[in-house]
Amino acid sequence: MEPRAEFRRRTRLAPEARRKQLMECALEVFSKRGIGRAGHAEIAELAQVSVATVFNYFNTREDLVNAVLTEVELYFRGIASAAFGQSKDPLEAIHDYIALVVEAAYVKPDYTHIWLEWSSSVREEIWPRYLKLLSHNTDLMKKVITPGFDNHDFDCRLSVDEFCRALSGCGYMIIQMINQPGHASKEKVVEFVYSYITAILHPKDQ
């Protein structure tokens, strides 16, 4: 497997720097190969280190998968917290969330691809953990969006729980849009997805 970015020389690194390098490689391998197929050998090849070195940092495949999913989980928890972690207008928070997910799809494609694969791995042992992430993020969304439902600011046929589930699923649409030939600009993707989501919400003042 060829490295996506710069050539990775075989050099001595401090343990933390080596772990960071191996995690970057692991994210790339998991993104390309899939959660179920990625392993220590591909990461070692990409990082240009021995397989034993990768095992020194991730002793088992379970440890490796857990470390990668933890990295992805923290990243997308951070996105939800940035958009919905403080009191603000619901529409502003929704726009912020969509913009952050679109930005992630451009600047952190490995994280985004793993997140979306994880969200559909319903037959895997990792599924319950994904549901906890989904619940955490939709709970943050509901804290900001529920007052709009309670105040009848929206003429939405969905419950607030159903709407937040719909919002959390916008990543699929985003990935499809930015990976098409001649894809739209980042701004156009945000604008389209926001219009689509708010059409479901149906704000009364719009």
From TrEMBL:
GO molecular function: DNA-binding transcription factor activity; transcription cis-regulatory region binding
Coiled coil: none
Superkingdom of origin: Bacteria
Alphabetized InterPro entries for the sequence: Homeodomain-like_sf (IPR009057), HTH-type_TetR-like_transc_reg (IPR050109), HTH_TetR (IPR001647), Tet_transcr_reg_TetR-rel_C_sf (IPR036271)
Keywords attached to this entry: DNA-binding, Transcription, Transcription regulation
Feature: DNA-binding region: 39-58
Organism: Motilimonas pumila
Protein name: TetR/AcrR family transcriptional regulator
Domain HTH tetR-type, residue spans: 16-76
PROSITE patterns per record: HTH_TETR_2
Gene3D superfamilies referenced in this protein's UniProt entry, alphabetically: Tetracycline Repressor, domain 2
Transcription regulation among keywords: yes
